[in-house]
Amino acid sequence: MSDPRLELYMKYKNEVYLYLYRTTSNKQIAEDLTQDTFLRAFQSLSRFRGDASMKTWLLRIARNTYINFSKKKQNLLEIQTETIEEWGVPQDQYHRLHEQHLIKLVLVKLPENYRTYIILRDGNGLTYQEISLVTNETIPQVKVGLYRARKRFRELYKQEVGEEEWN
Where are the domains of the chain? Predict the structure, then answer.
């Protein structure tokens, strides 16, 4: 017989990790927070009521874990900025990698709630209903929040690339 906690971890670890990595842009912090998330989930598994899917419940725990971490460690969140040369990337992939770096840079500049909306909807593909369960907000609040988050993202992105490159 296998351990249900291990099965839970194996099934959802990548989604939780990706959410936390996209939120922090730091592999080590995302790994640590993923472990913390599952530890907290295992400790409260008996209280899981099934009101939301297991994935949504875990992402809510992951979000709360990140919020608690960021309150304690405001200055530890850094974007990893290896150079293209260190990656050994062919020149034709440079633009794609540069774009990914800009997206991470802009995401980190967004307020946490805006970053969460974008990552959960566009990165993890959650529905408005699932996002409302993760954030404990109504669906209309999520829709408005996502609209504002995307608008702010575009503004910050334009600032990063400059107006001449945007048009």
Answer: 4-166
What are the C-alpha distances in Å from 1 to residues 4, 5, 6, 12? Answer: 9, 12, 11, 20
CA distance 42 to 12: 13
| Cβ–Cβ under 8 Å, residues 34 and 63 | no
**Mean model confidence pLDDT for the chain:** 83
Residue 22 or residue 161, greater confidence:
22
Whole-model pTM?
Answer: 0.67
Contact 97, 89 (CB under 8 A): yes
From the centroid of its chain, how far is CA 68?
Answer: 15
pLDDT computed for residue 84 by the predictor: 43
- Residue 119: CB atoms within 10 Å: 23
The fourth-level CATH superfamily of domain 4-166 is PhyR, sigma-like (SL) domain (1.20.140.160)
Contacts of the segment 122-125: beta carbons below 8 A, 24+ positions apart: 123/18, 123/19, 123/22, 124/15, 124/18, 124/19, 124/59
Rounded Cα–Cα distance for residues 158 and 153 (Å): 9
